[in-house]
Amino acid sequence: MDSSAQTYQHRPLTIKLWPPSQSTRIMLVERMTKNLTTPSIFSRKYGLLSKEEAEEDAKRIEDDAFATATQHFEKEPDGDGSSAVQIYAKESSKLMLEVLKRGPIVKEDGELISDKAGATAETVFDLSGGRRAFIEREEAAELLEPLRGPNSYTKIIFSNRSFGLDAARIAEPILLSIKDQLKEVDLSDFIAGRPEAEALEVMTIFSSALEGCALRYLNLSNNAMGEKGVRAFRSLLKTQINLEELYLMNDGISEEAAKAVSELLPSTEKLRVLHFHNNMTGDEGAIAISEIVKHSPALEDFRCSSTRVGSDGGVALAEALGACKHLRKLDLRDNMFGVEAGLALSKVIPAYTDLTEIYLSYLNLEDDGAEALANALKESAPSLEILDLAGNDITAKAAASVAACISSKQFLTKINLSENELKDEGVVLISKVLEGGHGQLLEVDLSTNSITWSGAKVVAEAVVGKPGFKLLNINANFISDEGIVELNNIFKNSPDMLGPLDENNPEGEDSDEEAEEDGDHDELESKLKGLGI
């Protein structure tokens, strides 16, 4: 009886989760094949795999993941296989992401010309896949095991995983052992949900472990660091003299934190990308950032959007950007620059001969700032592809300058002038320059501009025949019901080109205070009809 009881009690321990059945393995291959052949942000950038190539890759990925998980399982024969299942899933996800980023492989006479997947697998160590989760000591030891011993990893991605203090102590000696070979480090969102004291200590441990490594890429975004967090990374930041890309987005970079960044970085001569999006920098912080920009002559991509920067900070940034002659992408959206900062920026823009994207929406530029910037852009940036001046209170007064700028930019793919006050008069001026040329234009946004059917008709006819054109957004305007019918008729052969019109107001009633002060609907309608076109 005792023996039977012992046998009965022991049976649950014999249940194994590894290896998976053959049907399970086949199902995983089929699922990966479907994912690899489904259009996504990766396929738009790297290309979409054919079904045949996706099946080959899916089978290879599953075989490699199965082998890795089996090797792990054999090291712990007394386990139930649950950890092997986790490794099987994580390895499959990691390898599938590498294939997506590689894109289709070009073949010639049956031979592979290039195979980026192998190179990626050897050089990038990525923990960011899967659900966002805390990492404690045991899991850290397991996840970081591939970094122990000889390896060729030059990039580590620890984002989307929250490291506790014990996990950081596991990572510390591993990072010390590989720091001399690292070129790219992504520590974005790696302390989420941790108490401040623990988070600061974790950051200090990682910083000390990576001190002295010669990085070209560093991402510390989404860590709510503030000044204390920036200084916790002191050991790492003060030794970086070869940085080419630095990301400090959504980090609570206040005035003091911005000053700390400027103080700790020893050199930015090689910096090409600098992103400070979504911080609370303010004017004084922007002045500190401008010191970094001023000493970054190689800068190509600068983003300082949604950072609460006003006129003084905007002027400082504009003047500092004068040193960046190689700028290709400039994003200053959603700040409180005002006209003065817009004028200051217009003085440095003529130097940007390589500029391809400029985002200046919601900067309170008004007509004077917008005109100055449009005139400056007209004489520079011959290869401009994206022009964004949304939400700047631009009226028909500045429309001629904006239209002249657009006319000179034949490589434009996207124009965003939404949430302004162009009305029919301004929209007609801009639409006329779109009628000829601009063969690469894909998208025009003129929503929320108090446009009636008269203006909508002109812009619709200007873009409908363009090859490759994708979207005209004229929502939230004052187009009559009859005008809506006519618009749909204009786009009857390509209905997807016309964006939604669910917020259109055929009665032509503006909701802002100025419209209310102008009087009732009859008076507004009279004014709109009186516009010269």
Automatic annotation (TrEMBL):
Domain WPP: 15-108
Location within or outside the cell: Cytoplasm; Nucleus
Bias (Acidic residues) ranges: 504-523
SUPFAM superfamilies recorded: RNI-like
Bias (Basic and acidic residues) ranges: 524-533
Pfam families per record: LRR_6 (PF13516), WPP (PF13943)
Region Disordered: start-end pairs: 496-533
Keywords on record: Cytoplasm, Nucleus
Molecular function, one GO term: GTPase activator activity
Keyword Nucleus: yes
Cellular-component GO terms for this entry: cytoplasm; nucleus
Coiled coil regions, renumbered to chain: none
Superkingdom as given in the UniProt entry: Eukaryota
PANTHER family assigned to the protein according to its UniProt record, in alphabetical order: RAN GTPASE-ACTIVATING PROTEIN 1
Listed name of the protein: WPP domain-containing protein
Originating species: Phaseolus vulgaris
